[in-house]
Amino acid sequence: MTDRTITLSATGQQLACKSGHRNLLEVFEHHQVEVEYQCREGYCGSCRMKLVRGTVEYSEKPLAFVAEGDVLPCCCLPVGDIEVEF
């Protein structure tokens, strides 16, 4: 798996998603980006954020409702380069 780039829309900061990361939340933690979260399993939806550009895939379908254009970073990984807003 090649590295993917996550761009934060508010600042333009770009984060590298490496093959060892299990989910997007781990990428944020690795780069010391503060993200609200609770369960880390896709149950609560507190980490919900907007997917501005790109595609993600979920390891398992989250139990929390995910609206069109939103993602739960605790249980997904980018398919390619993405841009998020939170």
Automatic annotation (TrEMBL):
Pfam family, one: Fer2
Domain called 2Fe-2S ferredoxin-type: residue spans: 4-86
Superkingdom: Bacteria
Gene3D superfamilies: 3.10.20.30
Name listed for the protein in its UniProt record: 2Fe-2S ferredoxin-like protein
Organism of provenance: Rahnella laticis
